[in-house]
Specification:
single chain, eight-stranded mixed sheet, 37% helix, 18% strand, globular, Fungal_lipase-type, Sec_MonoDiacylglyc_Lipase, Lipase (Class 3), AB_hydrolase_fold
């Protein structure tokens, strides 16, 4: 497995963070003016942003939970067979529902306010509408329609997402990889809960191209909280005490964090803590 480089990590992290606000200037991040399609959930809110450069590859950004209903889906831990051509095992029902849910046009929700938008906002709105005129009614249908067009242009796809958006990226990545072999460049998730059952972990095709980022003791990364029932896939990159640990077992992570908290008052007495603060003096 190739290592995830720092600039790649920062790029995906920033895209995941900045994808949440309603206004998103994709050109600011180096993507082509017309290199964007937004896909909406059953409420008309953007759930996926597909971004690309004319002379480069594409990045698909999945948003995490945006409402109380999305959070409640995390509680539905029933098995759901992955909607892929070949058997890919079973995943968390709630996370796959986010891809199965109907996708409606934001024009259905915001048409009355369209005339009030500035020219640049109207252009952004139009781009987001293009994908909603494609055939297919579910979120995954529209994502596949857009992805197939990009793959036909020779572009490879990088998928990234935060929280349940990371789980969506894992499931969608498996489906797209089966239908368009070799199309997925990498998958990078942040604070992602465990997505599938053991059958999915065993059959997952992208384990050598998947990076799961976890910060300290992020509680969501331990969900659904049913040991030996749900399993993570890919390589874990655990960010803790200014270091990166690879594939650290969950129990060890918990013990190390608790130990760190208990020893923190003593650790701040060590000279390396003072040396690390040397940059503070340049600011005063």
């Amino acid at each position: 497995m190739k290592r995830l480089k720092r600039y790649q990590y920062e790029r995906y992290a920033i895209l995941c963070r900045d994808a949440y606000p309603k206004h998103f200037d994709h050109v600011h991040y180096g993507f082509s003016k017309n290199g964007r399609r937004d896909i909406h959930n059953r409420w008309g809110k953007t759930i996926i942003r597909v971004l690309w450069r004319e002379d480069g590859d594409a990045v698909i950004v999945f948003k995490g939970s945006q409402s109380i209903w999305d959070w409640l889906l995390n509680l539905i831990v029933l098995p759901s067979k992955v909607d892929a051509p070949k058997n890919a095992g079973h995943v968390h029902w709630g996370f796959q529902f986010l891809l199965r849910q109907p996708s409606i046009s934001t024009r259905f929700v915001f048409e009355k306010d369209y005339s009030r938008l500035s020219p640049s906002q109207q252009a952004e709105f139009k781009h987001s509408e293009d994908i909603n005129r494609l055939e297919g009614h579910s979120v995954m249908d529209k994502l596949e329609s857009c992805a197939s067009s990009l793959v036909a242009q020779g572009k490879r796809l990088s998928l990234t997402g935060h929280s349940s958006g990371g789980s969506m990226a894992i499931i969608a990545g498996e489906i797209l990889e089966q239908k368009y072999p070799g199309s997925i460049k990498r998958i990078v998730t942040f604070g992602q809960p465990a997505t599938g059952f053991w059958s999915f972990k065993q059959r997952y095709r992208l384990k050598n191209r998947t990076y799961r980022i976890c910060c300290d003791v992020d509680i969501v990364t331990f969900l659904p909280g049913l040991p030996l029932m749900f399993w993570h896939v890919g390589e874990l990159l655990w960010l803790h005490n200014d270091k990166i640990y690879h594939n650290m077992p969950s129990l060890i992570r918990i013990i190390r964090v608790l130990t760190s908290w208990l020893l923190r008052p003593i650790a701040y007495h060590f000279m390396d803590k003072y040396i690390r603060r040397k940059d503070y003096f340049d600011k005063h």
